[in-house]
Amino acid sequence: MRRQCGEVKFSVWLATFILITYIILSPCFFSIDVFGQEGISKDILTVHSSIQISSNIDFTPENGVSGGNGTISNPWIIEKLSITSKQYINNEGGVGQFCIFIYNTTDHFIIQNIYVSNVTATYGIYLYHVSNGVIRYNLIENNYNTGIIAFSSDNIQITNNTIRQHNNCGLCYLYSNNIHASNNTFSSNKVADIGDFYSNNSHIGQNSYEIGISIDGAEPYISDETPDDTTYIWILTILIAVISVSIILFKLRCKRKIA
Q: N or C, which terminus of the chain has less Cβ within 10 Å?
């Protein structure tokens, strides 16, 4: 009798441990404040003002560039910055308030390990008529409209970013070519996680979504998407139900044996 009830207690303990572990590891319950290729905390980044690059000659230290020469083998590097300020732009490239604005460039560049956030900024990162850019390992959150937008741009890779808490899209690209969006984590974006509009030859793969993709006038190649948070919630709900029923049945079994 005691052995059977002891087995019941162990089963209940094991089920509870599995449930708690699942909750901790599930992306819908885990908030990311450490990010980037090296597991950076946003609190240790160098604070920098908003960045405006309007031509290749603007890739300078004053605009956050820490290395490179703009070639494919040695791209400009902008990294390890915290940008929470904004500036108003009104020119051919766009109208609005931006944390990072890059316009009319062809040099190769990488933006990485950067924190971008301003609740009243129209866009976190805005690319207009830009080629040969990589945006990776960044935390982009809580910008008013959209996290990253690429307009009339070409050969842009957007990978391994956390993009969340925007009133429109997390990532949006329009009238662009060869946009590669992969291994990004999206959450709490109100309209869409990715918006692909009137673009060609885009590739979307291995992203984690909460809402999903909005497509108009485009035919992106979509490969091997990971489950969204809804999937995790359903799995969690089923797991809780199974554990609850098991606990009830185990308790009834013990009571009957004791009686």
A: C
DSSP codes, 21-88: HHHHH-TTT----EETTTTEEGGGSEE---EEE-SGGG-SGGGTEEE--SSSSS-EEEESEEE---EE
pTM of the shown model: 0.75
- 201's CB contacts (< 8 A; 6+ apart) are 177, 178, 221
- If one looks up domain 45-226 in CATH, what number appears? 2.160.20.10
Per-position b or e across 72-96, b if 16+ CB within 10 A of its CB: eeebbbbbbbbbbebeebeeebbeb
Query: How long a stretch of residues is the chain?
Result: 259
Can you tell me whether residue 145 is helix, strand or coil? coil
103-140 per-position pLDDT tens digit: 999 999 999 999 999 989 999 999 999 999 999 999 99
Q: What is the DSSP letter of 3?
A: H
